[in-house]
Design goal:
235 residues; outer membrane lipoprotein receptor (LolB), chain A; two-stranded antiparallel ribbon; 16 strands; 6% helix
């Protein structure tokens, strides 16, 4: 199935151009979809898909990212990421993620058991406590978090989120009232935009290696208020 900009930002050690058309997807049977075109310094490099569906009292996220950075018609950087996350009551219940970053294979697996989150990654096993959240930009609750799990590396990172300002964002040729936040993490500062009326994730921009900029341009986002409706369905 196709579907944490943070992933590519981390891969490049730490984006997005204007969009031609934006589709809003009705939340049929409690399914939400995001699709972003990804650019590096304004040049297309790939896409990132997200699909979230309600399954009883939990939400299941399927995501897939595919990036290819070319130099003189030669692929200089190839990135593939797939992840399945299960969420319950706003916390991560399990994760299974695989990443191919320029020939390097990474994996992250974790499960919540008896109040602890048992994690396994290339860095080895770890046990985390409390309500674990990943860099799940689709869930506006991450804006209140102080630690987030990197689904590429398995690192549990300290983060700081700051509201910056209200502004009008050009989405599919239409001006949309948006809230801009700065999420500071180990890889650098990530700018996030959410709609001011429903907190729907609209896009991101972040620094990349070499003073470059990665950006996510929304192609498909859920219809207004469907994010809140999805989580209400699990109550």
């Amino acid at each position: 199935m196709r579907t944490p900009g943070h992933l590519f930002v981390a891969a490049l050690l730490a984006g997005w151009p204007a969009i031609s058309a934006l589709a809003t997807v009705p939340a049929e049977e409690h399914v939400l979809e995001w699709q972003f075109d990804v650019a590096l310094d304004g040049k297309p490099v790939g896409d990132h898909f997200f699909e979230i569906r309600q399954d009883g009292s939990q939400q299941i996220l399927e995501t897939e990212a595919r990036f290819d950075v070319k130099f003189l018609f030669v692929t200089a950087f190839r990135y593939r990421h797939q992840s399945t996350e299960v969420w319950r009551d706003g916390c991560l219940s399990s994760i299974e993620a695989t990443t191919l970053s320029n020939g390097k294979n990474l994996s992250v697996r974790g499960t919540s058991t008896d109040g602890e989150f048992e994690l396994s990654s290339n860095s080895g096993p770890a046990t985390l406590s409390g309500c674990i959240q990943s860099f799940a930009y689709w869930n506006p609750a991450v804006l209140d978090s102080s630690k987030l799990l990197n689904s590429q590396t398995g690192e549990y990172e300290d983060v700081t989120v700051t509201f910056e300002q209200r502004e009008q964002l050009d989405i599919g040729g239409e001006s949309v009232a948006a809230l801009r936040y700065r999420l500071s993490a180990a890889a650098g500062d990530i700018t996030l935009w959410y709609s001011s009326d429903s907190n729907t994730w609209l896009g991101l921009e972040a620094p990349a290696k070499g003073g470059r900029t990665i950006s996510y341009t929304a192609v498909t986002i859920p219809e207004q208020n469907s994010v809140m409706q999805l989580f209400a369905a699990g109550d």
